[in-house]
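task queued by scheduler; priority normal; single chain, no ligands, no partner chains; default sampling; output format set to structure tokens
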Amino acid sequence: MKNKKGIEFPAVLGVLLAIASFQGGAAIAKGLFPVLGAAATSSLRIVLSAIILVIFNRPNLRNLTTAQWRYVALYGLTLGAMNTIFYMAIARIPLGLGVALEFIGPLALALTGSKRIIDFLWVLLAATGIALIAPWSNKGLDIVGVLLALLAGALWAAYILLGGHISQIMDGGKAVTIGMIFASILVLPIAIGNGLFVHLKPVMLLPGLALALLSSAIPFTLEMHALRKIPAKTFSILMSLEPAVAAFSGLLFLHEYLSFHEWLAVALVIVASAGVTLTGKKNAHTAGDGSLRDI
């Protein structure tokens, strides 16, 4: 549907594109991670994303209210902490387990306040799929890595709630841009302490720029738009497509073949995501602009 600003972008499609974009960035991060380390790679991504967004959006900082400053600062700090802590987690534990543990946060948020049986069904299917994907049989797991992944999941849930609220009180593009500035303020000192400028080479700036676009600037902007249109619990379960997209990307680009139960897990996650999208469409309309009051 057209409006005065142009063409209305479907919220669900925006979430799916955000997931695909993030996975493309993950492939680039995989090449930088061994050289820069977890914290520095995350910081490079966030700082370059902030620079890109400031140049593109040119936010006016003078007309923000006190409430807008407060929420956008919390949003940005949460965003920066979530990404850095997750990178630190997967430096200690397998990526699949890290992703599965992190998803506990959004799934818990999706379950909060649910009143219909169908909502619990989609959460159960998604949780079952994630559990099947996770390498629970691994021994000798780093407990610090496990705790960091769980903390990243809690921060992810907070990010969803804060993003949903901010999208109701200020422009999404401005919120993401200013939020990334605050995220940069948080992560840059950590990166410098971990030797970012020591290990960073000019040749890494191009892949770093692509990483910033694909893993931060593009997906976070799309997600902010989506959070204005759909309930946070719908957004949370849609994001559970992340492991499924990762599995297909691994098969297509890395020739990583999955076992039967892993493909079953992918199917369960896809069914749950499709189901919550279909049944949540009516809720999104009745909620006006996808207000978090419904959660």
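post-processing summary
- The first helix runs from residue 11 to 36.
- The first strand starts at residue 2 and ends at 3.
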